[in-house]
Amino acid sequence: MKKFDSKKWRMKKLFILGALILSLVIPMVDGINIDNNISTVQAALKITISKKKASIYVGKTLTLKIKGTKKKPKWSSNKKSVATVSSKGKVRAKKKGVATITAKIGKEKYTCKVTVKKLPIFKVSSDDIKITKNKSKKIIVTYNGKGTLEYEIEDEAICSCKWKKGWQGNKCTLIITGKRKGDTIVRIKNDDDKRDIEIDVTVVSKQQPVQYGNIHGNISYYYNKYYGNRADTGAYIILIPKNGAAKNISNISKYDYNNSNLKNASVYITKADGNGNYKISHVATGEYRVLLISNKTNSGVWFDASESNTLDSYYNNIANYFTPEYLSYTAAKNLAEDVSFYKYHIEDITIYNNEDIQLSHDFGITYI
């Protein structure tokens, strides 16, 4: 009869137990490796575009990228008038609207809906000011965007700034105060489209007295071959200062030659007399842009614009001579519309202290 060998039985049980454990563990480990490999392959095959929706302002750019592949995509825009895209995915906004930007890889397409928005109005009443030490000037900031405005001063020893509390519509006021003599720049920024406006600030120790000069001349036109040149009676002569003093004027007309507010802003308006002569005395020294408006001749360009329904563009071209350096857009546009169908001439002059400047012009033959 065989005896029970307890030692061998214990060994056998340990062997069986070990085999059982291995049978359970090995498939589990293999399963984990397989799943990880599958996940890795799937992740490598997933191709995406960096943005599916985007908003940018006119004139700004945005770069789109394709992730998950080294293959080079073919980029295209369904509305190139709204937004274009380069071969490297750089989107450039052209005008307000919506465009779909597509990246094609093989038969697959990846798209981004791009909304192009018009840039908000962002301007200041003056970008070049002179102030006396310990005196202040107000800068009107016009902004209709959604961002926040802030300012920075290049040299805080020369001037200080503070916002006046409260908005009036889309306008707010920045108060700049002179601290010591010198030049610096105040920079106003908005954190939405990241634009900034620089204001050149000059602080003087004492306000210089205003000096004056005069301007005169004759305005004429060509009547016919028998009478030759005749006086352009009633022609308008308008002087707009370059120093920005007239930028806060909301409206200006050629008929405002007795407007005291315009004179305070160094804007001078007069008419030619029966002989075509004019004279403006006591004109503050400095640089001016002069607008001469005929009263006897008219322009064929105006009639062409009228027939083609492009008068607004015609007036904008005139207004652009005065905005933004001389006048606000509204004032410049109103003045341009005052020109109407008459011929006009624009010229720059400088008025010097105690000097008499001559500016004459002949408008030639009339269109009609």
Keywords for this structure?
Immunoglobulin-like, 3 domains, 368 residues, 4-stranded mixed β-sheet, 5-stranded mixed β-sheet, alpha+beta, 5 helices
Q: Can you offer a commentary on this structure?
A:
The protein has helices spanning 6-45, 260-264, 300-307, 311-319, 329-339, and strands spanning 48-49, 53-57, 61-63, 66-67, 74-77, 83-85, 90-93, 97-105, 108-117, 122-124, 128-132, 136-143, 149-153, 159-163, 171-178, 182-190, 196-204, 212-224, 228-231, 236-241, 268-271, 277-284, 286-298, 342-351, 356-358, 361-362. By secondary structure, the chain is an alpha+beta fold. The chain folds into 3 domains: 49-117, Immunoglobulin-like (Sandwich), CATH 2.60.40; 122-204, Immunoglobulin-like; 212-362, Sandwich (Immunoglobulin-like). It starts with 5 loop residues before the first helix and ends in a 6-residue tail after the last strand. The model is unreliable at 28-35 and 37-43 (pLDDT under 50).
Task: Produce a short descriptive summary.
By secondary structure, this protein is an alpha+beta fold. The protein has helices at 6-45, 260-264, 300-307, 311-319, 329-339; strands at 48-49, 53-57, 61-63, 66-67, 74-77, 83-85, 90-93, 97-105, 108-117, 122-124, 128-132, 136-143, 149-153, 159-163, 171-178, 182-190, 196-204, 212-224, 228-231, 236-241, 268-271, 277-284, 286-298, 342-351, 356-358, 361-362. α4 (311-319) crosses α5.
